[in-house]
Request: fold
Amino acid sequence: IDNIPIKLNAAAILREGALYQRKMEQELKRIENLLRGAGDPSEFLEWQKQMHGKDLEEQLAEIECRRLQGKLSHEEAVLAHQNVIQENKKKADLMREEKAELMHQYAEKRLQEQKEMRELVEQVVEGHKNAKQAKIKLQKYKQRIVQEVCEENRELLRQALEEEEEKLRKRYELIQQIRAIESLPSIRHKFVDLTETGGHGLICEMSIVELRERLALLREAQKAAEEEKRDQIIHEKQAKEQLLLDKLDQISLFRAELGRAAALKQEEKKRKFQSGERPMKDERILNLQKKIVEKTMERKKQAGLL
Reply:
């Protein structure tokens, strides 16, 4: 009911303005039909609204019954789940005792296996002591081979460095010669006449001066077209802004009228509700609520035992 200010964009303003325009046209058409002698459909619409309200109440009662049935099913499922937990707890205690006995037997078996493994390891360690000396001799032999290979690689690297230095020296001398040739002065003079054409034999040939004049004319024409287009855009924008302002005034007026109508309708509805009697609840709903309370108490009692 309250007319809360909301910042609207252009599309929302036009859309809401079109909606209110359609409503106004429908209202004018209804008044015109009444002036011509047509009947007022308000009584039929009121009866139709009452029938819809009655159907809605029945639908709501049916939905409430379904909701309560679902809640009752949930309570029954929870109670059944608690019973299953109780049975599983008994089975788990029995399995825990059996598992403890098996773990004890397994621990004794593992101690015996560890003892046997310890004796086997002692036998293997005795054999490893003899193999250690052979391993030291093999390591010394490998170190001698690595030293010989390093000396040979060092000699090859020195030869490669000498060859690379020779190549770099020759390349540096060649670059110096090229730079000396490029530094020689070269005298080139050519006179250019901007009023002459290229002489290619084409009909559309123009000199540089003519091309510059043509380019200046094209730029002036383009600038004039841009100015004209800019003025047109400004005029269209101003027209659109004025249209939006008119639509906003119209929307504010319609909103105020709709707010007053909604307030009157709310007051009428409140007065009817206060004067009338509150509807009684459906008997099915009461029975379902009673069953749910009983199942809930039974579930809490079972939970306390668990």
